[in-house]
Records
---
Amino acid sequence: MRFTSHRDFARAFERALRRAAVPVAFSQGFTPHPKISYASAAPTGVASEAEYLEVGLQATVDPEQLRVALDAALSPGLDVLEVVVAAGGSLAERMEASYWRIELPDVDPEVAQRAVSAFVAADEVQVERMTKQGRRTFDARGAVTRIDVLPPVETPSGAADSSCAILELVVRQVTPSVRPDDVLSGLRVVAALEPPVSPRVIRLAQGMLTAQGAIVDPLDADRDGAAIGEH
Amino acid sequence: MTDDAVGLPPHRDSELSVWPRLEALLPQVTKPIQYVGGELGAVVKDWDAATVRWALMYPDAYEVGLPNQGVQILYEVLNELPDVLAERTYAVWPDLEQLMRTHGVPQFTVDAHRSVRRFDVFGISFSTELGYTNLLTAIDLAGIPMRAADRTEADPVIVAGGHAAFNPEPIADFIDAAVLGDGEEAVLEITTIVREWKAEGSPGGRDELLLRLARTESVYVPRFYDVDYLPDGRIQRVVPNRPDVPFRVHKRTTMDLDAWPYPKKPLVPLAETVHERYAVEIFRGCTRGCRFCQAGMITRPVRERSITTVGQMVQQGLEFSGFHEVGLLSLSSADHSEIGDMCSGLAEQYAGTNVSLSLPSTRVDAFNIDLAQELSRNGRRTGLTFAPEGGSERIRKVINKMVSKEDLIRTVVTAYTNGWRQVKLYFMCGLPTETDEDVLEIADMAHEVIRAGRAATGSKDIRCTVSIGGFVPKPHTPFQWASMSAPEVIDGRLKLLKQAINADRSLGRAIGFRYHDGEPSLIEGLLSRGDRRVGAVIHQVWRNGGRFDGWSEHFSYQRWVDAAAETLPAFGVDLDWYTIRERDELEVLPWDHLDSGLDKDWLWQDWQDSLSQYEQDDCRWTPCFDCGVCPSMDTEIQIGPTGRKLLPLTPVTALKVPTAAQQ
């Protein structure tokens, strides 16, 4: 599912709404669109356990019933974890930071640790990425509030017999956005870290950022009260 | 029954999956989602619990192949059998092909990512001959020997189907068998034969299995036939080289489409594809008799699906898939005996929802506009397409497309006055007997359409697009004997046409012009009427990097010309011999031993009628004209009306929450 692009997901989600007979509200106009807003979607190629979106409805439905109906209507691997009634305010604005895990198969954790230390020691790390506007250079360091190398363990995805470095990091939502692959570019810039195999990236959480650097569940503000998480 | 029967070691399911190795490559390729599978409607079964295992391929990119109706239908029909497993595979793009070669990842199915070589049967559906090079890539990536003669019991039986299989001779060296005609029952019959053969302990090996298939008289096994040639390069004869094999192989015809309401569970992909709709075939076959149209000739007789079955399929298909577009498919949809009631009934049922209905392949008359109006009740009137096919009255008589210029203009103007702003007109270039004048009349017609449209609507805001396709003579049509025009002739005519359209600048501004170059059509012509010797050309093109020949950005005319020049002279023939040469009545054609039901004498007579511009009526409304299909295939025309109507749907108001039992 990590190879699903945001557009692919959006189409699948709209079809799921129809299959589940969800009474979605539509925009006015010549080509009415269902009222759905997606908050800070994960990039293509990245797995996620924490995606959020809002749906406008024409009628009141039971949130748990809606969760079960939508979950059943979506492909396996796209799971609806929770549905709450929106208390108001912008969901997108609550997405202040994301918590990511990056697995680097065939990378020695000690090598990774040296690269991370060099990255942390730098005030800024300029990286390049192709964007829709063309090639852009920006700082990948400033938005990273925390980055650690986990102690070596077997990877859950099975690359157990070779060494595998696992990084966990918290990155603030900034413009231009700093994505996990930008941080990896940063590690290449500061320490010439070149993963021999494609890294596996997963978003573990996103939400508001506390002063202590913890991430707060963005649905706390609406709990018991419609946003939906999927991974 | 396990793999032991075919002499393979037992293995575990997980060992068959190439997913872990494939997944590591996907971040490096474009649109990786197309290789992931997991579509709604996809079926993954236990490998060891299945007796007969099919890999089905549409030999083009996933975005084109996934919506293919034929593959979806066979996939569902096969997977409904408890002891049968069917999975799908598509052509991989060159970026992934390269990586698969480097990392030793074989051609895989998207369902459970199993290696294609491990299946019992590998079925490939060809709608066009330009997919042949992709077949070779798939065979090679699968690790299957390229030549059928070199395969062993460790390899699947490769079966070609689809319209191009009506002349599979150019790929005869690479396939083990071909099936002509409708696939629904054919796949079941093949499955039964494979199942029995395996249960008996695979007696006689691969040869015996192929022989059993050939004895059905509806599965063609090229290796059991020898082709002899005359000194001048023409075919002398095609004869069986062993007893027990039929002289002619007959096409399959599935009667009573109401008994085969597929797809019931259409595949709904996560990736974007060319058609995102629930498509239902409202009838199969066509007797309009357009002489260039292979589909219309080889799918006779007309068999309608009843209005009520269509209604039910649409309802269930939408509910299952969540699609919001419905396509009512056939070769000439407005010809269904109850099309009026069907369109108004569906429009009524889905009024006020966001479901849109479309009716491709319609004819040029006012009735068609009524239907289009019905279907676009709550939607936009963006575009309508009409296909007069030929520019002049004379050439339309040659191709038997009976529509007058006056009718066409009247119809298009009606469309404009009913709110459509954009009309597309489809023509062909390179038709038999065609002259520059025939093509230039397309410009007159387009000018007149715009002039009349502006007068009728009082508006300058109307447009028409002239779209031109290249004519390719196809086997089993009256034009199977015709010569093709050289690409330079086609391109020259298109250039003249473009100048003629723009000669009047005011009118020309409102006319769009789209066309295909003559070169790809010539190669399609080589492949469609080729014999076994053309296999050498295909193989050479593939070795030189030919892939995705249906895509203009991948197609290389020069590569085909070079490969033909390298391989064909050894046989005393060349590219022109296959394409621009006209055949005479007595020539043995490469597909004469393959029976589409059409009587060759009738086809020749229709070809002669064409040259004298004599038109042929439709046998649904006029007496039978003896094309030969019904008596030789023991079939009949199946059309309505049934007199039934579509009833209003009960609106769904509650959320569809699955019960615990279904979870």
Note: The first strand of chain A starts at residue 36 and ends at 39.
---
Amino acid sequence: MQAPSALAHALRRIVGEKYVLTTPEALLVYAYDGSVDRSLPGLVVLPGSAEETVQVVRTVREAGWPLVPRGAGTGLSGGAVPLQGAVVLSLARLNRILEIDPDNMRAVVEPGVANLDISKAVQPYGLYYAPDPSSQKACTIGGNIAENAGGPHCLAYGVTTNHVLGLEVVLANGSRVWLGGKLQEEGGYDLRGIVIGSEGMLAVVTKIVVRLLPLPEAVKTLLAVFREIDQASSAVSAIIASGMVPSALEMLDRLTIEAVEPAVHAGYPKEAGAVLLVEVDGLREAVEVQGAQVEAICREMGAVEVRSAENPQERERLWAGRKGALGALGRLAPNYLLLDGVVPRTRIVEALRRIRAISEYYRLPIANVFHAGDGNLHPCILFDERDADQLRRAKEAGGAILKMCVELGGALSGEHGVGLEKQEYMPLYFTPEDLQAMAKLPQAFGSADFLNPGKVFPQGKVPTAFRPTTRLPADAII
Amino acid sequence: MTQPSLLQRPTLDKPFAGPDAPEEKDLYTCVHCGLCLTSCPTYLETGLETESPRGRIALMRAVYEGRLPLSPQVVRHWDLCLACRACEAACPSAVPYGRLIERTRAQVRRRLQRPLRLRLAEAVVFDHLLPFPSRLRTGMGLLRLYQRMGVQGVVRAVRLLRPFPTLASMDSLMPRLPDHFFTARGQVYTPRGTPRGRVALLSGCVMPLVHAPTMRACVRVLTHNGFEVVVPREQVCCGALHIHAGRLDGGRALARQNINAFLGCQPDAIIVASAGCGSAMKEYAHLLKDDPAYADKAHAFSQMVRDIHEFLVALPFTPPQAPLNITVTYQDPCHLAHAQRITQAPRRILQSIPGVRLVEMHNPSRCCGAAGSYQILQREMAERLGQAKLEDALSTGAQVLATANPGCALQLEAGARKRGLPLRVAYVIDLLDEAYRREASAPG
């Protein structure tokens, strides 16, 4: 392994003096992402072009250092946290929209472009980019690819992989190749699909061809208020059973509503046990009919109130509560542990009941704000990590919830990725053979132990996110 | 290179102390979700986490906990912050970032020796100039003389100030000063028509001098709408510049003087035309919460403060009848949009003027780089942001760039002047006043 000063020197010659960071204060702010884990990088480098990225990858590889690509650092599973003192490769400066092709409904963008900025840029053409993670204002498309990110509207439209046609990537050996391209179908192996969701462990993405959709003619957002969360869960099942696929179907429980209202004033009634946020879109006539249908079902299941937002401002306000929910939970406790387990839609009522029991057993509040339509739960365990016992209980409660999801026939992660947070839980869901098959990929890409090492696969440790902190004292919070 | 102690148990002194230290509960409200990043002008310009709100808070915490020494290298990142508070509006956890950066700056001032030149300049401005309206007036009077006698032209032509970049940038910001300043001398303006109430007007420090005509416009607009306007004599600078620079005690002294001056004349509301001042005055309650003699009065005072646009729209104001026939674009001053969360009122006023075509620019609420003394101290970043703002304004095809804050107005005027752009910078209130006056002078 080359000395850090020599590596820094070599990298500065590629990207310029300003964009290689080695000072303690700089390393400290690249030790975290949106998750609970943190670990200091060896240094941070920010290339300004795909060409520079190629040279950076080669140089770091030759110097014998591991490398971790990073977007905006909004991820929730520790994907961008550099282990082993890795070099952080921030793609924040690769933030250009290179091409908009409205006729073929696609755009070519760089990885550092914020998700929402794509939709804003193509809006004049009547188009948008469908996957909409709640952090879409800040999270980058590159990070979305690493995590195969979802979002509320993925119920009807699918996740990132359904909206990316091609990727230009830098492989571990420094060669630059295209996986997929500008066409929907190209033949050959779908290597594009393998890289999407690979959590930065296979290649560094430098260009992305995204698929765009026409903005729907009409959108209707409904907010249904329930006294009991079980009623809301039944309404979810009933809506799907009716044959409709709303573009979004989200649930917020009482605790979340309490956190959200004072923060964003979205107009959710504070006394509600749960609210459902349902969106239908499409042709104007169909939207009217479906909206009425959703309202009728919700009332039948016991909704005390159903409101609908017709204009963009009202809609934005209703959504503001959902999109800002996670951050707003920061008001209730200094820390939260956010999980991403999935259960079959038909088991939501039972899953929520068991989460309640886990909350009582571990004596920690757990808020639920989630993609009800596809059973993607986001239990959010509230705690204060300065209290060592609370931290221990939070992690154990998290483990208990993930086990429960798998027991109910679900999975560990819907959209946040595995990263550090869930790697030790992988054997709950995958057989050793499954994992071995997966582990062949980094070998095949030549990126094993180089790109984002130490993630996704179980390391035989106590689960990273749920072990008592040994690496960090309870009071080290950044 | 890896320094595990950065994440480990504290090893250093904890330099943040005393009543004006950043509050622990504020520091720990941040859950580092990163949603603030794309609202931050300096992050967008640099792409660096160190120049982001989340990064700056992480550094505050590290210093607070004694994991990172308080050094000029760390302070640099806080200094580059505009304190525009766009992150505060974007933050779902409601982290009071403005308060955190102000208090951090107060700690830095206490603990780190700044260069002598800077300390002297600051002492002159903050201790001997800003708190005294008469000295400011005299100083600006001299500057006006400097302009009128043609000295400024000579100085600029021979680039006399080139060795003094701070002075040079101050000189380049200076617009042609008005012939008559607006002076608070306790005057009372009588309302037109049926009286609707009595308001007290903040004149401020810089605005009544460099933008005196706008202060008169404020008076006319308020009296036009039936308000008696008092301009309390004993009022002083609102203290915002002190507070932003971390001189909280200086800010408190000014706040107390203003509380005495304004509460004494028992107005229905205290009207502020400058976004930065309005924001600071609405926060007097928090600033003086630990002062037993003033806490209650400060609370009452803050409750009465209204931004002039907010006040007019809530009335509602009388819509002007005469047309202006111009295309206008509006830039949101940070301390109006982010600190006071007022974005619609100024736009409603513009839209109420017949013949005004309001065209929105790209990113209207992104900081123009003025940010109080920032435009003098962080010239490079300020210029970059100012130019970007002018570009955005130009691409709307507007003839008038409307704003609501003296700092923004100065910065944008200077930028437009320097490039010889066909863009007039005006306050929203100037335009409303013009429409009212045109109406009064119209026949019939």
Note: Residues 319 and 352 of chain B are 6 Å apart (CA to CA).
